[in-house]
Fold each of these.
Amino acid sequence: MKNKGWKRILYYIVVALLLLVMMFPFFWITVTSFKPSEEIFGSTALRVFAVHPTLDNYRTVIDKGILNSVKNSLIVSLSTTAYVVAVSSLSAYVLARCRFRGKTFLMSLILGISMFPQMIIVGPIFNMFYKLNLLNSYGVTFAYSSITLPAAVWIMVAHFKRIPVSLEEAAHIDGCSMWQTLWRVIFPVALPGVFTTAIMTFIASWNEYLLTFTLNADKAFQTVPVAINALRTQFSILWGEITAATVIVIVPTLIIVLLFQKQIVSGMMAGAVKE
Amino acid sequence: MTKRRITAGQFAFLVPLLLLIAVFALYPIICSVVYSFFDYRTNDQTAAGLYTSTSFNARLFAEDCGYIAYYLDDEITLLDGADKAELEAVSADAGAMENTYRDTAKIGRLSPAEEEKLGRFIDDTVARINLVYDKNQGVSFYNRDKIGVIADEMRSCIIKSNFTGFAAYEALLRDTRFFDSLGHTVLFTAVSVALELVLGMVLALIMNRAMRGIGAVRTTALVPWAIPTAVSALMWSYMYDGGSGVIAHMFASLGLISSPEVMLLSANGAMAAAILADVWKTTPYMALLLLAGLQIIDRGLYESAKVDGAGPVRTFFSMTLPMLKPSMLVALLFRTLDAFRVFDLITVLTGGGPGGATETLSIYAYKVMIGQSNYGYGAVIVIAMVLFVAAIAFLFIKVLGTELISDD
């Protein structure tokens, strides 16, 4: 069995390499964020650890209001998640359970919208928000529906379909209305699916760039991905601050991934795997 | 089971979804299609709306008439006799015009007869004033230049229809910048998706083995996918930086590039940089989708293959790959469409540069539409993109047989 031992070692080397490649950027960003700016440039640029580690970069970006954009991101992402989950569970229940004319068309439409280049809605949405005086506001959350809702409906339909129909039949015999059946019987059973949808919607809104970039030029309403890039154009190459801001905004993502990896993986699979 | 009409109760559950889709997806899409038939540019007042017939900016016109009368009153003080009377008459005519249109709604339609009448009025006024000016060469008038400016503005109040039909689509076919960005988009999409498929497959096959440490790999794989693209692009732009970038220096010392600055400042380097950053971010996603496909393959089949004496390579190509095809096609379709509309990554990393070498269709469309406020032509570029996306989806669904909707 000597051969198998070698195979095992080779396998672990490959795994270690993969981990290294995937994690290296995060590692490098983190070590840079503790370097004073004179160590980031010039001959010391490629030294791994700072000779004189400092928290100055963090202080500066916090002074520049990075936490305000984290707050904006939270407000926008949480409200998007709330209404998208509500709307998608209502409609996905009907789409998963009932058969009616036009259903395939509706499902294809939803799928089609998720495939469309986002750019097609940007111009008209900008005009719409301009006319409604919604530029530079949290109103951007409604525009997020066009990117988050199709996927949310898709994930929810996949989950509802897995719930045995017998549950509803029992509820129906007991005299529950459709609303009661959904709220009292199906929803509790479907909670894991609801949760998955919520996580996926949250991540998608948290990561959204194009719409906020276009609609919220005002720094006071910018979300994290936009604000952090504004840091670069304003102060062209202050990598220390940029890396510190990056670390600050990546931490919430890391926590979400560690806590909810099961839901995330199941959300990715919805619709993507033929069972 | 036969299909019925939808009941009112069922429909009520769908209403919020339908409303949101209608307002924030369908309406904007229809708008974009409409925009594409107009020369619609919001930074030019003669093209800042969708005018199917000649329109008239009455309020601005009335204001201009007022200015004409006002400026002429200055000139009148310098003259006497017939010229004075003539300018007084012109001023009175302009004042009358001002009164006619002062209270009209801002922008309205203009009938051909009215258009001609107003056009003639402007020409006449300018001609009469200039005649007086020319006759009195010795007099230094106050407002000669201003009258000319105002006359031009009056002409721009008559707004010609900016409906152009398919003219902008024809222009697109002659637009080399469009074909350049199409080329960049196709190159970026093809190379990054191909790399992601191969690397993702390797990663999926590794993750599919029940070995110690696999959980950590799976968790780690989610992280690049989960962080915002705009943030990861920024991270990479630091690592590609010619001065302080660790990756740029690493590639330079490996001899892949001639010097660290080349990474983002040369056409090929920037494209490679964008592709590499995309591969890093989305390979794990591809791997997880493929892994899910691998996991529904019956383990017993592997045993049988082993008993039949098939080696690992043979097993992979004759059994795993065909069984994985449905999940693989779906993953490929999603990734291809995603890569085709790439915006965040490249806009942050290179902004489409250097010299437009990484400008993709999304970036070109955005620059035209939002950067230059040219909504008409921007919409044309976007609609061309949609046609390509539809062609890609058609290819996957009809030709390769990708199943997306199963109505059981």
Note: Chain B touches chain A through 95 residues (CB under 8 Å).
Amino acid sequence: MDILKNAIAGTLESSDVLVKVSPSQDGTLTLHIQSEVIKQFGKQIRATVMQTLEALSVSAATVVVSDKGALDCVLRARVQAAVLRAADATDLDWNVL
Amino acid sequence: MTDAPPGIDLNADIKLDFHTVSLTESPEAEAEIRSLLHDNGLDLDEQVDTFVVCRENGRIVGCAGLDRDVVKDVAVASSLRGTAVSLRLGSVVVKLAAVHGHHDLFLYCRPDSVQWFRGWAFHPLVEVPGVITLMENNPLNLPKYIEKLSRERRPGTTIGGIVMNANPFTLGHRFLAESAAKDCDWLHVFVVKEEAAQFSYSDRFRLVTEGLADIGNVTVHHGSKYIISRATFPGYFLKDKATVEHCFCGIDLLMLREHIAPALGINRRYVGSEPLDATTNSYNAGMKHWLSETPSAAAPIETIVIERLTVDGSPVSASKVRALLARGDLGGVEKLVPPPTLAFLKQQFTRAHDDQQAGR
């Protein structure tokens, strides 16, 4: 999926996560994660975001994740929503998600 | 249904409503916001018109001002501190800004509130100690910009820097850059990127590049949000104000000293003496203070003031060129600008004249 524009999803509230997705300037995938529980769950958060991006075939994008202790399912949903908005996607294969 | 045990849900009985107000359209809201800001030790920033407000039973209990991509004047009533109101307010601000196309935001706050705004996913960029801190919410943008700049680093012991708006590029700019280039090993010139000037950024940048093309030891850089922008130096774009707040001037200059200058090794900042423009004059006065005298983790930068070029006994300035242009005095303009700028202005003037003729 091609990232065409900036998009955000989520909130800054407790147990949620704010995800910002924007087009990549050099064709690479850059992921930045900030989290109040980065020490405990940083690896897990990164893995979940990467898996979700992979499932959506996103290979070039800048993704900034501001986590407030979201559960994995919430994180996945926020990343998906931000990517779909950024890709202007209307026709979805929900099976891969 | 059972009541939640006391102390569990802090927001259970608070009915909150978030919406935006325009101060010009709603004087009552303005009065309420002013008083809330006052309770928080803040003054209303006159550049902000749009506020996100949080109302509890109709009363404004939280507010955050939004000036394009800059968040200012954030306050929450003392009765609601420690609740989730702040984070909801932050979420609404981020979303509203995104709707208007601003995805990466700056934020001004007092240094003692920095921790609070980390919760909004902002991180501090630069601080005028005890007065004001500039924060931003995309941690990737500044490092990316600094990395790009540092590729333009040149060897030498004296590396100069000039920041110019060049609206438009005059013989005065040329004289300043030429004098500076002679005085140091390499000179880095930044063109202010903000589109608040009479001439567009792309035209200003092109004329600076053409006007300095024959000087061997100069690099002309694109400006950015980190050098004299609406974010780092709001006052610069309010030319009718007689003076610029000391602290805003400090934010921009410390940004240069702590982030931009180290990327290029800049250790001298050149500036033209300023007899005409009060804003620029006040900025120049602040320069010495913030770039070298004030303590900072970054190395000091020497400020070198170069006497402004005069033609026929009066100082050359871009504002004078604009005034002459407005009167249609191209002969007067010719004495003050180099050939590329003159060619551009003539072309613009002819076009405007033709349009006027066609309109009749």
Note: The beta strands of chain A are 7-10, 17-22, 29-35, 61-67.
Amino acid sequence: MSDDPGDAAVTFAPDDRPAGIEDVELAVFEGEAVLFDVQASMVHLLNAVAGGTWLCCDGETTVAAMIDELADTFSVTEPSDRTALETAVHDSLARFADEGLLADHPRPARLTFTPEPVLADDGTEIVVAPPDP
Amino acid sequence: MGAGIINVRVGTQLVGIRTDTAHTFGRARTLLAAWIDDDCGDIPHALDLVLDRPDGAHRRGPRPVPQLRHGQSMLARSRSADEVLTALADVLGGLLARQDDTLLWVALRVLADDRVAVLVEAPPMTSSGDRRLVRAGIRELSTWAVVVEPGSSATVQVPPPLDGLDWAGARLEPTRPEWRNYDLAGVVGVHDAHDAHGASEAHSAAEMLAHFGRRHTAPEWFALLRTLADHGRVSMVDTRRALSSTVIELIGPTPSDTT
């Protein structure tokens, strides 16, 4: 696994065993999944491969085994299709790492914008109208 | 141009209400007398209350429908000025109740009959005055936000109006001073999404869950949406007519309709 801060994306070796963080709610649908990261209060929409990859992130399954398992799940037999699947699995893992969804990966710093409350002279918050769209 | 701004102190917040005419100003001041704060100085208005023809407007011009707005967002709109003034009391009551942040507040519109509610994410006025909804006994509830109580049978709880209002002085029928509870039937969004050929794009259950899941950060909200989505009770539509149909279908027949 390469986690060089200078790299834009984290890469994984075939024998790496990625583990997903625990505080996550997952909803699996046909062909897609939605993942709610409780600590970060973030919602992630995953396609079929990303959803399958996430389910394999148990800390025991190697990346190579993930690809084998997903190739079996999606009935991938053609070499070109398998190459595409490998790329998609690695992209998914890199995304999970970037989003702080994998254990042992730091959560990304997030810039959140919270508007300053408008205060009256006595310090009471004033409810304001939203800006025009 | 407004006729005057009424400042009310609601719990820990101040709210400026701009009124359209002197008559509206006087009536709203009477209703809200117990909550008015005339000593807070000039504050920007957050709400616009229109009950009458603007002062000086040409009598042959179009008559504005009474309405309550928060910026561009329509909170209430009705041909009855009484209903809109009552909605103001409800909205302010919701603002006060909303200050209890231990509850799961969701800022979605509420369409409900007497017992069942649907949460709606729609542009302002999408559902206002919809005849099909009215015929089905469904109306929009005016509120600042609602509490969602997750569970095996989730409920929507609508805050009561402010208490201590001068209903008689404002010539209004007082509304119920308690929270109103409804069974939650589903969540519907109006989303104008079309592909390159102008055809509507369908939304998958996962896309809808991801979309509405971003409306609140509580895991309970996500879990509730997941349950609703599993039962086909989260929808995204692209027209006003489809919104009405979906809401009517989700709320289902009233008990009297089934007998």
Note: Residues 4-258 of chain B form one domain.
